[in-house]
Predict the structure.
Amino acid sequence: MSEEGRPRSDDGRPPLLEVENLVARFAVPRGVVGAFRGRPKLAVRAVDGVSFIVREGELLALVGESGSGKTTTAQSILRLVKPEAGTIRFRGDDITGISGRELRALRRHVQLIFQDPYESLDPRFRVRATIEEPLLVHGEGGGKADRDRLVREALERAGLTPPELFLERYPHELSGGQRQRVAIAASLALSPELLVADEPVSMLDVSVRAGILSLLDELRRSGLGILMITHDLSTAAHFADRIAVMYLGRIVEEGPAREVVHNPRHPYTKALLSVVPQRDPRRQTQPEILRGETPNPVNIPPGCRFNPRCPIAIPECRTTDPDLRVPAGAKRGHQAACIRA
Amino acid sequence: MTEPVLAVEDLHVWFDLEQGGELHAVQGVSLALQTGERFGFVGESGCGKTTTILALMGLLPSSASVAGRVLLEGEDILADGEESVSPHRWTDIAMVFQGAMNAFNPVKRVGEQIAEPMKLHEIAEGRTARRQVGELLERVGIPAARASSYPHEFSGGMRQRAAIAMALACKPKVLLADEPTTALDVMVQAQILQLLIGLADDFGLTLVLVTHDLPIVAQVCSRAAVMYAGEIVEIGATDTLYHDPRHPYTRLLFAATPDLYDEEPVLSIPGTPPRLDRELVGCPFAPRCDRAFAPCDRVKPRLVATDTGHSAACHLNDPALKAAS
């Protein structure tokens, strides 16, 4: 894309995060027998040409089943996985190939929140030390008094008030929800601009999930951009501004959350929405159950990768690999990768 | 109403704690299940739902003590401990454990593993067992020929189907399923839930589904029990539990669950469940309740019938207490 053609925010600045045609591959183990026979290493395209934007004050939910590539996409942004092709820009700067000091500097601005607050916190660290750690690593926060202030502010922003109640506690003295809040506080200590949250509530009890999601919502309102990875469409429907649905390494539909949920255009999105159980027993879901399971990304079907399971596929779908486009009658910013949409 | 296939009367479970003392994990659970019913146990982790169904199977560890009665078609199967429960385990009451799909022996063919309980309980062996395994697999949606496959040759969804087939091997009357879809993708979850519904409706199997996921219970079960701090706080038709809950915990639990099409904000429930290693005074939910009033801290509410045709353990349903406050 040319410099002029690149998206800009309303104020003319480049968007917070811009991912363009991202490709990330894994080598699949070929096994002892395979290696002995000289069988070639197979490359799995976990992410195969993914593009999206996260703006300031926006929460984008990346939704998909296991193997869809949503977690690999998130990890590529933080460079926990090395992208093979494509471009990742943060505030307009190409960060795809950076390393060393540049990468460390980036990690101040982009923070990751993990799924499991039981694993992401060091059990030997008190809450104070957990939140201070990133400040020390990045040489931030000045003197002891300044750090203490930043730690307290981070705890308050994460809803752990008053901070005195939590500062000297160990993770095992906290509930699951409180642990996730400590993890979020630790990621807020450096005042990041983008949060990448990988299934931030799936390990938590229902009664505390809403609290963590509301916290993310508040952070979004205060101007942070948030990329949330989730398998839960109901959560995405409630908390996301935009939803991107992934299938076998591609985004097959993307748009305003309301539009994607109420006017889905891609047959995969439609099927996925139809099987989400609803709270009200009177609204019995009419599940449109797809044949089989998501194929192994080692063997991606030719044409549209969804065609073998698609209820409305036509012969052309076996040869045409569709790009994302705005279907007829769709709202602005709503795209689907389906020739029949 | 006919005699229930399974009745639980005042079930209690205590666990001995290593550091001394006891944890009162199940505190007086009673319920009755009809043949072919689809019943749900819901609640947060630690509420006692899994402990309850393990007690029904007589499968609790030796650190547990159990009191109360579990009547299978009128016979108390817990009366003489292992001796009275073992003849009924798998043959009358069977269970799909949480994570069962990952519990297959990796070096044995799936069919052999499904046939094991048949041999153990002297129901079938040899060619008869093989034929029955084939029928079971077909019934759960797997081609009979796949009996000779190894577990790793199955997808996650197929392994969960096979785990259900194994639980059905001795033709039980009651199937207990603990979080049967938790690790599965939403599309596969829908397939497994349809399978379980079909087994109850087509074969008269009584299904007890344990899950933290309210929408699953709302879609699969006609009745459910909401558990909190080791006891049932509300029990009745799922439709009434959603539309006319008579316990604040039930209402708040639904309000904390996001729904795909309902745009009302989801609300968290403040606080955490009480510890069960000390005696509870008053209503266990009172510290987290948005409608607690004078008697709640002091007097423990009993599970009593409400005007909606089910039962709830909440003082708000007692007009005299409410008027007095």
